[in-house]
Design brief:
The chain is an alpha+beta fold. Helix content is 40%, strand content 18%. Helix 1 runs parallel beside helix 4, helix 2 runs antiparallel to helix 4 and helix 6 packs across helix 11. The longest helix has 40 residues. Bound molecules: phenylalanine (PHE). Phenylalanine (PHE) binds next to strand 7, strand 8 and strand 9.
Length: 354
């Protein structure tokens, strides 16, 4: 009988490792330790044995029961661990694989080309010691016109079709409001908060009540620039503009200055660049002239310095108003400004993605 018991135990120990699930292990347990299980059968036959045999056999049978119990518990916990490991391996998510996970589940956005060049320009000017200023979109007449040497009856007001806010209670110059027609509004705001020497740019949206076509929009972007100090000259202006354009277009650009009229600069210029598409030979982008008008600029008018609280006898400066949208169009070969505001994802998604 003892042999029978040892044989049972051996059989159990051989069977246990071959079982792959906890259900099978529990069945095996029932087979051996259950009420009608094999060990119980052996113990039943004890009644026919002599008291001595009974003692030995009984002791051994209980020991075997305990061992089987322990082996089963161990096997069950091993199986559970194996199951966890298998799940971990098959359901593994590598959270460091950001792009593949995001690309599979979401549409990552593109960066608008105006924003791209805007940020690039900010970085470039910052690296040359300029501050970045901001100004309100809703402006008063003073900052948009009066302080810039454009009084109410000045014909230059007609150059910029203005969106006015109607305030029937207060029509004074400081309280008539409008959507700023240019970023030059920031000139006086910037000057009155600083003492020379200083230089800053002010990028932002501007608004004009204009009919839209391939090169005109009612909302567009400018980057105002201003440098004030002692003995500032046109050559400073040319130096900074050439440096910026070289960085933006990644090559040396040829520029020229033509006289231009703006009441807030004297002398005023139009800065043109040699057409980068045809290298000055003439093409549809430059309308066959070989030059593209890029930015108006000039030496700050003494009246404007005065309006900004700066003594024009001590200091002077230059200012420019870069048309950001035109620059974006040149850089990416975009032929219609209306694409920029179309909100068309097929357009925007061609540019950089985060
Ligand atoms: N503010 C002018 C415009 O919008 C541009 C400009 C800025 C001209 C600074 C000269 C100096 O047309």
């Amino acid at each position: 009988m003892l042999e029978q018991l040892e044989q049972l135990f051996l059989n159990f120990k051989q069977a246990l490792p071959t079982l792959g699930s906890s259900a099978d292990v529990l069945n095996l347990k029932a087979e051996y330790l259950g009420k009608k299980g094999s060990i119980a059968q052996v113990l039943k036959s004890l009644k026919d044995a002599s008291p001595d045999q009974r003692k030995v056999l009984g002791g051994r049978a209980n020991a075997v029961k305990d061992e089987i119990q322990t082996l089963i518990v161990t096997r069950l916990s091993d199986l559970e661990q194996e199951e966890i490991n298998r799940k971990l391996a098959s359901q593994r998510i590598d959270i460091t694989l950001r792009d593949s996970v995001m690309a599979a589940s979401t549409n990552s956005g593109g960066v608008h080309p105006v924003t791209l060049i805007w940020h690039e320009i900010e970085d470039l000017f910052l690296s040359m010691g300029f501050e970045i200023l901001d100004g309100p979109h809703v402006e008063d007449e003073h900052h948009n016109f009066e302080a810039l040497n454009i009084p109410a009856d000045h014909p230059a007001r007609d150059m910029q079709d203005t969106f006015w806010f109607h305030n029937p209670h207060d029509q004074s110059v400081d309280h008539r409001h409008l959507l700023r027609t240019h970023t030059s509004t920031v000139q006086v705001r910037g000057m009155s908060e600083r003492t020379p020497p200083f230089r800053f740019i002010a990028p932002g949206k501007v608004f004009r009540a204009e009919r839209t076509d391939a090169s005109h929009e009612m909302v567009f972007h400018q980057v105002e620039g201003m440098m004030v100090g002692k003995d500032i000259s046109v050559s400073h202006l040319i130096y900074f503009m050439k440096s910026i354009l070289k960085e933006i277009f990644k090559r040396e650009v040829t520029i020229r200055l033509r006289p231009g009229f703006f009441p807030f600069v004297e002398p005023g210029f139009e800065l043109d660049i040699h057409c980068l598409i045809c290298d000055g030979k003439g093409c549809s982008v430059c309308k066959q002239v070989g030059w593209v008008e890029l930015l108006p600029c000039g030496m700050v008018h003494p009246n404007v310095l005065t309006a900004g609280g700066i003594d024009p006898n001590q200091y002077n400066g230059y200012a420019f108003g870069l048309g950001l949208d035109r620059l974006v169009m040149m850089r990416y070969g975009i032929d219609d400004i209306r694409h920029l505001h179309s909100g068309d994802l097929r357009f925007v998604s061609q540019f950089k993605h985060y």
